[in-house]
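Aim 2 progress. For NADH-quinone oxidoreductase, the working sequence is reproduced below.
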Amino acid sequence: MAKVTIDGAEIEVPNGASVLQACEAAGKEIPRFCYHERLSVAGNCRMCLVEVEKAPKPIASCAYPVADGMKVFTDSAMVRNARRNVMEFLLINHPLDCPICDQGGECDLQDQATAYGGQGGRYREEKRAVKDKYMGPLIKTIMTRCIQCTRCVRFATEVAGVPELGATGRGENMQIGTYVEKALTTELSGNLIDICPVGALTSRPYAFVARPWELRKTDSVDVLDALGAAIRIDTRGPEVVRILPRINEDVNEEWMADRGRFSFDGFRRKRLDRPWVRQDGKLRQASWEEAFAVITERMQGIPGNRVGAVAGDLVDAESAFALRELMVGLGSANLDCRQDGAAIDASRRDYYLFNSGIAGIDEADALLIIGSNPRKEAPVLNARIRKRWAAGALKVAYVGPAGLDLTYHAEHLGEGPAVLSALLDGGNAFAEVLKGARRPMVILGRGAVARPDGSAVLAAAWELARAVGALTPEWHGFNMLHLFGGQVGALDAGFVPGPDGLDLAGMLAGGVDALWLLGADGFDAGLIPEGTFVVYQGHHGDRAAARADVILPGAAYPEKEGTYVNTEGRVQHGRLALYPPREAKEDWRIVRAAGAALGVDLQFNTLDALRERLAAANPAFRLVDGRIAGGCTDTTGPQAGSTSLGQQPFALPITDYWQADVVSRASQVMAECSRIYNDPTPRLAAE
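Predicted structure tokens for this construct:
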């Protein structure tokens, strides 16, 4: 530890820390533009100048290491004058167009010019103008505003793993952009907007929509992938106009994936906002009373074992549990939340969780990925893997389709389950890498178990984790990566077939006469047998709604209070940011009303009462904003039964990242992204 004196106060900081970090530890605010805690040090902007005793001139505190006995002054006359001069230089070519800039009101340059700048500029010559660059359908560029801090360049290279941004030219002719003008090929591009300290990179869908002080801000959680990123939903009136990430070091750090960030326009398109019933083969609008009357009439006389329910991928845990209680009250054990047919053993929670924890990636030193592409399934988690790999502390291999670009080097071991047998038998060299690791990890993709031999794949992956030493009392290295934010919560709520109950395949094979679909759009509704009475409860008119006999309009995740469980088992609460459109209602309320119409007493009338019953059924729901961590003391694995490993190569579950869920399929922004990024010919510029 080094002893440093900051403005007369002596503190101790670790050896190798920068002067800027020492000043922050002492509670001193140091302005900066180029410096970012999660990026490499560039030392471009010089805004962080401080005075060091006996130094002939101010030093850039972000790039200067501390030394024992150093005395630093952060607010001397020299420092104030230096910062004013730096700010004056930064503003020489800046267009000063704050009134029309989307960054206005939350701009670092505005704030620091006010706090640390002078009273005016002395520059009277013409300003430099720079042509705007095309970076895709999500990022709007006004490059004349760029102060060349290179945060975007470092983020793209170091965090996103796509070194497509850089600087060309020198001196006054230097410009930031893609070397060949094209759309950025990353699922994390929206984070460039967050880290840009000026208005050079802004959100194209949010352009000229609102000012930050006009918005109502609500903390919530992203459910469009299973990471469960902490987010802030900004609304104005009845619309979501922006979604931003919040800092959660254990989950998403401060990053967010593009699909969850930019698909918000899908909340106002293709919405179900009133009940519908099918009459004479056609759907017509109806009242809630009419809809429940039709449900009661059609389901009267159907035995409980001929009624089934399917929960979707974005459903909150309360709604899934409420529907489960309704089915139990009707005498049905035909429940399933695995629309993809995944052979998930729900008898033990660690059979289907990311047990190492997302932050546990920072401790891993060897990783095997089975049947998954984390870059498409959980881009922020993939960035965390890349961070660990870039530190030189992680060796990675994967089993699945060849040629995956994971943004980091990963050895390809093969395409099918035969590789798992080879690893277990010691016939693959990477098995020794895993055995020699201190913290080995196995990530099993959900798509790897959504196949006929899924139970055998699950059992083999667990056995492999046990064989290489990934299951110990101190470390749990078996991890399943789910795809969407409602999948784990439904499993925790017990939405799986009960004794003698049917799964989705059994229900679609004619095992039920009435089928209740709760936001279930992830399977082919055309497979539902003719004559089956179908109730669809959801918020978008997607695949399953067209097959329904009764449609009950529900609420999307920003429109209700709900509990979601991420892939690592972390229980989080989503908050109500705006109300559902027109006659749509929260899903648990709809289920409660349906129970009353069907004569089933569900014994809860409030959300708090429902949550208490949910927590009583599974105590994991009592630990909010946390997870039950620990090693593996019982290494008994899931049973494969009579199923054996097949020969078919693993297929990835997400073929189109941009339209993988019901919200993004309704989004025009995501449709444009899908058109651009799935086109085999490069998109060079906006047309």
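The two ends are 57 Å apart (CA to CA). This observation will guide construct design in the next reporting period.
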